């Protein structure tokens, strides 16, 4: 079967391409995170278990750490809430977080190129990224008057 350049790489190829050892747990982890919506650790663990059966929480943490370090998974940690993981990486997008229900939503970068926010003074830093969290109430919570 001819392989075209437009064909997306398999999850195993993505892991290998990032220099990671390919394991069933890591494949399941990346697929879970990519298919999910800012998942917490427990949700990632249950997604992996749905795919490959039992896996310890320790193995889930190890996998998340490895994939985050390799840049395949992005960790966001809104103040006062548990970390969430997402598969949308490298585009410097920002997040809206609801103070009431904790829902997290993506918001595209205003300008497009990272970092899309320019500090008043960069103090000589070579900046790679800007991370913004907009706090408020989601539409549902606002409507409920929370
Ligand atoms: Zn809400
Ligand atoms: Zn996001």
Provide an overview of this structure.
- By secondary structure, this protein is of the alpha+beta class.
- It has helices spanning 11-17, 24-35, 41-52, 57-69, 139-144, and strands spanning 74-76, 84-86, 94-98, 104-107, 133-136.
- The strands form two sheets. Strands 4-3-5 form a three-stranded mixed sheet, with no helix packed on it. Strands 1-2 form a two-stranded antiparallel sheet.
- The mean pLDDT is 90.
- The structure holds zinc ion (2 copies).
- The site of one zinc ion (ZN) has 8 residues, from helix 5.
Main sheet strand line-up: 4-3-5
Task: Give the low-pLDDT segments.
Answer: none
* Largest sheet report: 3 strands, mixed
What is the general shape?
Answer: globular
- What class would the helix/strand composition place it in? alpha+beta
Strand content: 5-15%
SSE ordering:
HHHHEEEEEH
Distinct helical segment count: 5
Helix content: 25-40%
Mean pLDDT: 90
- Provide the gyration radius in Å: 17 Å
Span between N and C termini? 56 Å
The overall strand count is 5
Q: What labels would you give this structure?
A:
single chain; 146 residues; alpha+beta; 3-stranded mixed sheet; 5 strands; globular
Gist?
By secondary structure, this protein is an alpha+beta fold. It is built from five helices and five strands; from the N terminus they run H-H-H-H-E-E-E-E-E-H.
Task: Give the topology, please.
Elements: H1 11-17, H2 24-35, H3 41-52, H4 57-69, E1 74-76, E2 84-86, E3 94-98, E4 104-107, E5 133-136, H5 139-144
Parallel strand pairs: 3-5
Antiparallel strand pairs: 1-2, 3-4
Helix pairs in contact: 2-3, 2-4
This protein binds zinc ion (ZN) (2 copies).
């Amino acid at each position: 079967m001819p392989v075209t350049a437009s064909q997306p790489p398999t999850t195993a190829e993505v892991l290998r391409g990032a220099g990671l050892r390919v394991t069933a747990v890591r494949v399941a982890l990346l697929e879970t995170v990519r298919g999910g919506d800012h998942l917490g650790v427990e949700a990632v663990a249950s997604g992996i278990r749905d795919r490959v059966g039992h896996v310890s929480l320790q193995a889930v943490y190890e996998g998340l750490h490895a994939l985050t370090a390799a840049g395949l998974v992005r960790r966001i940690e809104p103040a006062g809430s548990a970390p969430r993981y997402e598969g949308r990486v490298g585009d410097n997008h920002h997040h809206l977080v609801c103070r009431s229900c904790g829902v997290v939503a993506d918001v595209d970068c205003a300008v497009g190129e990272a970092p899309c926010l320019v500090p008043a003074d960069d103090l000589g830093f070579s900046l790679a990224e800007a991370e913004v969290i907009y706090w408020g109430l989601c539409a549902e919570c606002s409507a409920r008057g929370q």
